Every structure is written in structure tokens, then in C-alpha cells.
Amino acid sequence: MTVLGLDIGGANLKAATAAGRAVSVPFALWKQPDALPAALATLVVEFPETDELAVTMTGELCDCFATKREGVNRILDAVEFAAAGCPVRVWGTGGNWLSVAEARVRTLEVAASNWHALATFAGRFAPVGNALLIDIGSTTTDIIPLENGIPMALGYTDWDRLHSGELVYIGVKRTPIMALGYPTICSEYFADTRDLHIALGHAPEDPTATDTADGRPATLDNCIARMARMIGGDPETLGPEIVRDFAGRCFRQQCARIQKGLLGVKPPDLQTLIVSGTGEWLAREVWHHTYPDLTPRIISLSAELGRDVSACAPAYAVAVLASEMPA
After folding, report:
1. Would 102 be classed as within a structural domain?
2. What CA–CA distance (Å, rounded) separates 161 from 35?
3. Interval 63-76: pLDDT, tens
4. How many domains does the chain have?
5. Residue 106 falls inside a structural domain
6. Average pLDDT estimate for 69-93
7. Could you give the CA distance from residue 238 to residue 231 in angstroms, rounded to a whole number?
8. pTM of the predicted structure, to 2 decimals
9. Which residue range(s) make up the domain with 11?
10. Residue 315 and residue 301 in contact, taking contact as beta carbons nearer than 8 Å
11. 71 found inside a domain
12. H helices of the chain, where?
């Protein structure tokens, strides 16, 4: 039986099978919630072998929904439409599967549950001793302690996890530069962390990407221009050296924000560090800067699973977990 894992976020829809096929498509849920059923159906059709759907989500936080409860239920409506009669299971932060009917009642257990599914799956790479999972995506960073392969989170809701440091609302693409806390910048959405990392050479250009602050493609020249606006300039008034120096300062601010979460979460006697996500490279960078003298075994989910699957790790996690735990 083929289980298709779905991770339904606010900016991306991700799907994966336990066999290792993964697809991620951009979808601005907060702009077009009514289009979610059709978008999910189109994604599911790409996997005609699907017998069952395993679902996790974070998109319920989008401000197009009045409450998380409404968001969860609207997402479940879309999932049932896309399933077209296939069985559906929903992952809960209790480490268990819920039916759609149960999930509609126990909404806070399935809201923002993808980090827990990923940590539960990742625990197999560190079945003994203390471990830490750092998953950095386009929007957020999850820092999750594990003990003998089991997630040992301090918080289970977004609110609790933000305060514990286990959720740092910073990623490598979608975070507005003004959110990094740099003191002398324009408080406008002129640029985001994708611009920052392309300007610094951390990430390649993407001429096909136009989901940027000004709608222009994510090319090097455009990224530098957007970063220049953050400090009240433009490509004519500020040279690329000045902009790259500013970008480097912003990068240090980004690392410091993630480092603060890491310092509050790292378990004692750490034996294994697991890194994953689109920003896996940043997880390594922050770790080595924070703990240069600690050398735990480092496991890269990108190396273990492949880059495409690692970028869709929570979707892959629920696919694998559901395949191993028959309904």
C-alpha cells in the first residue's frame, strides 16, 4: 500500500512517499484559501499510486482564518476533497494518528504538528542517548531535543515553543529582513532572507522565482537592489560592496537569533546532532559557531534521504510513519 504524506504550510504544499519521491510547490495559502482544495487535488494527482493520505500541517496559523480551529477545519475540508475517497490520517503532537473526525475536535493536537512528526521520524537516527534535531526551512527553525530517539520537547503549541526557544520564526527564504532586528534599517518589507543569502553567495539565483518583495525575479542584481532599499538606498546610490557588508551584518543577526534558541534547548551530554531542511547548511553554521569545541556525531537528512526529500522532510516523515503503523 502506498501512503502519500502531505505537509500543508502557509507558503508551500509538500508531498512525499516512503519510497522517496518528493514534490514541493509554492502556495500562498493566506492569499487564496478557497483555492486550497484544487491545489491539493492537483498535487495528489501527481501520485496516482496513492492508497492513503497521511497529513500534517502548519497552515492553520494563516491570518485568512479567524482562529486556528477554523484553519484546521478548512485544511481538513481541502484534504478530504483532494483525497477523493482515499482514507486519511492526521498526525497529532501526542505521537498518534487521528481520524479526520477526531482531528476536527482535537484541533490543537494537529495544529502545527509537522515538527513533531519530523522529530519522531528522525529519532531512528539516534536511538540511544541525547540528540538534537535542527530543521531550518524557508520560514522557520525547529530545534528539538531527543532522548533515546523520542522527542522531548518543552512546548507543544506555537506559543509555548516560541517561548522555549524550540521554535525560532526565522528561515532562509521568507523572513523579512526587518524582522532580524538590525538597528538602522527601513521598517518596510523591501527584502527577505532569500535576498540576503543570494547576495552573499550562500544560495543560487532563481530567475523563475517572483514571490519576492517587489515581484522581480530572485537574481543577484535584483537581490542586491532589494537589500539596498533596506538601508535607504538603491543600486545607483549604494555600491554592491556596501550592500554586501550590510548583508553580512544581517546574516550575523540571523545566526544570533537561532543561536539564542539553541543555547536554551541543547540537552546535556549531546551525542548526535541531526540537521535537515532547506537551510541545513545554516544549521551546521550556527552549531559550529555556538559550540566550536563540541563534536557530536552529525547526521544530515539531506545526505541520508536526498536533497528533495530533506526539503520535504515532514511530509516524508508522516508517509514513513503511516507506512510503518497500519491503520
Report:
1. yes
2. 30
3. 999 999 999 999 99
4. 1
5. yes
6. 97
7. 9
8. 0.94
9. 3-116+307-324
10. no
11. yes
12. 36-45, 68-83, 100-105, 107-110, 114-122, 158-164, 193-199, 220-230, 240-265, 280-290, 301-305, 307-311, 313-324
